[in-house]
Amino acid sequence: MSSLAELPQIRYQDPLSGIDWAGVDRECWWMPPSLLSLAGVAEFEALPLRQRQVLSHLEYAHLLEAGLWLESQFMARLARLAQRSEDVVRRARLLHELREEAGHSLMFVELLHRSGYGFHAGRSVRARLAEALGRLVPSEAALFWAMAVAGEEIPDQLNRRLRRAVEEVTLSSVVYRIACIHMRDEAIHLAYGREQCELSASRCPSWRRRLLAPWLSATIELYARYVYFPSAATYARAGMRPAQLWRVRALGNPRRRAQVAQLLRPTVTFLRRSGWPIRSGLCPTH
Ligand SMILES: [Fe+2]
Ligand SMILES: [Fe+2]
Questions:
Q1: Cα(102) to centroid of ligand 2, in Å?
Q2: Residues of the domain holding 97
Q3: Assigned domain for 192 exists
Q4: How far is the CA of 284 from the centre of ligand 1 (A)?
Q5: Do the domain assignments include residue 27?
Q6: Is the pLDDT reported for residue 235 higher than 80?
Q7: Does residue 283 form part of some domain?
Q8: How many angstroms separate the alpha carbon of residue 193 from the centre of ligand 1?
Q9: How many other CB atoms sit within 10 Å of the CB of residue 270?
């Protein structure tokens, strides 16, 4: 090998330059209506089209903010793992993933900035708790890879649905492009993450996995709730009041709950097959 640039697994495309940012549009859907937390709730369906579209922007903005949070955690870990790695290809692989995550975060920041929605400063207690729990995990541990898989798959599942639902309504072309780019890169990250997860779980004694499983289950549950059920502030920003009531409606929405169970199932099934006896209230068949 003469140059790292020749490695197929580290070929890089800058996401920022792959998007026509002049096309950012607020007069359309950013998420298909079927993917909104309140889809099927009579009081929500009765709202004017414009207001439902604004909620689709803000639920997508929420997904981006969840992505920014996750990627910041993940980039810090990747940097530490790369620093410790003595294998040059592995180090390059980790640094490449880090620059891809930075590229994703830049896309998210650009859309939030250009659209005028900006950043929502407040973070839920759940997100802060998940962050604190995440910091306790040693970088090389089997637990880290299990959390990395869950952390990336949970928003990715929603992103995949969003991209597939393009025939349902006309989506913002910029949002659609972001979803495509993110999905393409995440497919590679997830294949690597799943491989590392299986490998590290097989090296971790089963008593230890059993001991850590409740902690892993609780963290995944908190994080999935954070990603799939926006906070009351999201409804308030869409002009939907009382915002707390809309959140309660979303949390109790049977269609959303069934959708969330479906979105979580592949991750929960994979982790259980990898030797993590996890439980999930949001995905109750497991
Ligand atoms: Fe990403
Ligand atoms: Fe990723």
A1: 10
A2: 32-273
A3: yes
A4: 28
A5: no
A6: yes
A7: no
A8: 13
A9: 18
**84, 104, 112, 113: which is closest to 178 by C-alpha?**
104
- Which segment, 124-133, 135-144, 157-166, 176-185, is predicted with the most confidence on average? 176-185
The whole-number pLDDT of residue 187 equals 95
pLDDT in tens, 28-73: 999 999 999 999 999 999 999 999 999 999 999 999 998 998 899 8
Ligand nearest to the CA of 179: 1
Domain assignment present for residue 157? The answer is yes
CATH code for the domain of 182:
1.10.620.20
Q: Compute, in angstroms, the gap from residue 187 CA to the centroid of ligand 1.
A: 10
Mean pLDDT of the region 171-176: 94
Q: How far apart are CA 122 and CA 96, in angstroms?
A: 31
Structural domains of the chain, count: 1
CA 124 / ligand 1 centre spacing (Å): 21
> And the tokens for 244?
């707390």
| Burial (0-12, 13-18, 19+ Cβ within 10 Å), 76 | middle
Mean pLDDT of the chain: 91
